[in-house]
């Protein structure tokens, strides 16, 4: 990791806690209409469809490369589905527009801002997210994320894990792949980065890993596949800034 | 200006003082070899050729869309020219590589960082420069420029004043042109932005305006063509944050 000049961060789940913020706003909008529902499941379905859609498009499928548009299409689909149709007719156009922007208003994990501030002192820190630029800019202001640069799949007309997303970021940073580390709570993201020569940092976050055995994701020093496993961004800063 | 959500900043000359930094490093490298030369004129020729080259490519000409490469090509051309050939043979490849990066190490004007910090509280602030992304990221760290986003002609495969540069930045910000203001010390930049519907802020800086009568550049309220004329970014913050 000593030659690493720049760190690219996955954002949803890795730097910000999308789950609690989205659940809370859904619950609040539901309460306004006297609706009780399994909001955690609604939030998870919204998120899961997003993951599936971005993956499909990353693999060459057709679809929006702006996540605001994608989130809205998925939201409308959920609200029209039999399971959630008791909610759909009660949420107006304005309310759907507003709740769709909850993804711009996500809180950072408690270690995110202090960790990024420390890492920024000796490294270039940038997002590499599938979120669109405006979403990432709003989120950075809301959650106080001091990015040096905001990279998005939107800029490169694809999504992670398409190689073009990682290689475009490396290109604009003017470095070699091995001089960049990808930081993520999702092993699929790190596997894609590693296959292109980037270094990898895994940071487990609650309920983020799709792999059924996240405890098996280990550093190379411990017989695993990633370069580092850390429990927080402040720990990562302690290691890299040594 | 009340509907303006985002400010796009020209950088070289507008936010940072390229002239003093470039002159000082040229002089220092000259002194190392015992060379006396008209470094202010050398710096101006380097800058003028850059302006001409970016303009030519913005108009559809062929050439590098990475300014590090362009700066180096111009530097090598100058050092090979009869006028500066007494310097050329004495500067090594390593020294040329290093002096070429002086454009990453430019100081902000004294009002730039405090002004940007204030403006950032109520607006999205982003660069919109012809400099390449890595250059702008290095410069932001060096000069403490707290951008929310770094936009560069490099991302859009063109240079200002090509309309694509302005319209791409507006697109990624997810706003209408009239919700964005371009801030620059160069009227050509503001004229291009205004023709696309952006708002315009002119900020005179020493020796930056190519127009022979910069005092004739006035706000619309004073019979001129730009939306605002300010003497500093802190003044701009005072006006917009009111």
TrEMBL record, chains A, B:
Q: Name one Pfam family in it.
A: Hydrolase
Q: Which domain of life is it from?
A: Eukaryota
In alphabetical order, the GO MF annotations are:
hydrolase activity, acting on acid halide bonds, in C-halide compounds; phosphatase activity
Keyword list (alphabetical) reads: Hydrolase
Query: Which protein family is it in?
Result: Belongs to the HAD-like hydrolase superfamily. S-2-haloalkanoic acid dehalogenase family.
Alphabetized NCBIfam families for the sequence: HAD-SF-IA-v2, HAD_type_II
Protein name as it appears in the record: Haloacid dehalogenase
């Amino acid at each position: 990791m000593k030659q690493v000049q720049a760190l690219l961060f996955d954002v949803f789940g890795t730097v910000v806690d999308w789950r609690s913020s989205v659940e809370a706003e859904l619950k609040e909008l539901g309460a306004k209409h006297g609706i009780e529902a399994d909001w955690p499941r609604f939030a998870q379905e919204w998120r899961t469809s997003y993951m599936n859609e971005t993956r499909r498009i990353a693999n060459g499928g057709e679809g929006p490369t702006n996540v605001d548009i994608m989130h809205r299409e998925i939201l409308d689909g959920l609200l029209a589905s039999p399971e959630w149709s008791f909610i759909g007719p009660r949420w107006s156009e304005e309310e759907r527009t507003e709740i769709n922007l909850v993804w711009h208003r996500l809180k950072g994990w408690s270690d995110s801002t202090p960790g990024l501030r420390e890492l920024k002192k000796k490294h270039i820190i940038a997002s590499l997210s599938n979120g669109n630029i405006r979403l990432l800019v709003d989120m950075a202001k809301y959650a106080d994320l001091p990015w040096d640069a905001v990279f998005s799949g939107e800029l490169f007309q694809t999504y992670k894990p398409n190689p073009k997303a990682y290689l475009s970021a490396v290109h604009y940073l003017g470095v070699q792949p091995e001089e960049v580390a990808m930081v993520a709570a999702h092993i699929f993201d790190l596997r894609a980065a590693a296959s292109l020569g980037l270094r990898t940092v895994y940071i487990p976050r609650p309920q983020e890993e799709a792999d059924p055995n996240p405890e098996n994701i280990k550093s190379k020093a411990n017989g695993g596949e990633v370069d580092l496993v850390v429990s927080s961004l402040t720990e990562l800063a302690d290691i890299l800034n040594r």
